[in-house]
Design goal:
This protein is an all-alpha fold and about 270 residues long. Helices cover about 65% and strands about 0% of the residues. The chain has a single domain, classed as Heme oxygenase-like (Heme Oxygenase, Chain A, Up-down Bundle), CATH 1.20.910. Strand 1 (about 115-120) and strand 2 (about 125) form a beta hairpin.
Amino acid sequence: MSQIINPRIQAYKSIENNAKRINLDYKGNAKLIDKLLLEMRKHRLFSHPVFEALRDGVLNKKAVCNLHLDYRLIVKQFTDLILITQFKTRELSSLSDNLFMDSRFLITLNIFDELGFWPGDKQYLGNPNLSHFMLFDKVIEDLNISEEEKNNFKNSVEAKYLYEYLENSMNDLHRLLVYLIITEEGAMYYSPAMRKSAKQYGIDVSKGYYNVHGDTNDTLTEGEDDLHQEDIVKIMQIVITEENYLQFESTFHTLCELWANFWDAQYKRVN
């Protein structure tokens, strides 16, 4: 029974043990990722003025509605990106079948969360209407945005650039891992401000989409984005090397810029 308690920790231990078996410099690779995470958190994406605008209620309701409609394009795609990342971990079988399954196991924890499953006693609990995309659509509904408005909305150029870059990255495991790390960081950084902005216009943020996003230190939510990010970091430790470090660094910069451009577009709505 002890082998199935706390599956996340079990997977972390398994990855480390299996990395040792093939002489992978797993701990050394962690130092490479630490450098990338430090650079990522210094990027303008994580000190953007739109954060304060959202937090302080500067955006009017129309701007908040348009933000959610623009963001919806990315939220809908996110589920596909997690699923394809889980599939693409098959590439790790060339290193070790054990590491391949360890990685797939970890991503499944995120998929369960994303698709609306909850821990239960001797069974899975969940509902497809609790999937994060459907919860986000409920926010849009509660903002009194009609189906016609939703269907006819013209996304910003910046949102479409980000979306298309990701559509063209579905076959690139390295890009997918980087995107998931940055997006989980973004969820932790932006969710508190977006939550306040949504609450300002009548959204009950004690449940639904804004209740399941944030980190485990945020007592106002049940979010686990920090854990999901750490899961992806553990997988990246398998694939990053001194030789491909610059490639990863470039991808981090590109995706941070694309996300920052998206928020630039939202900040323009302040005026």
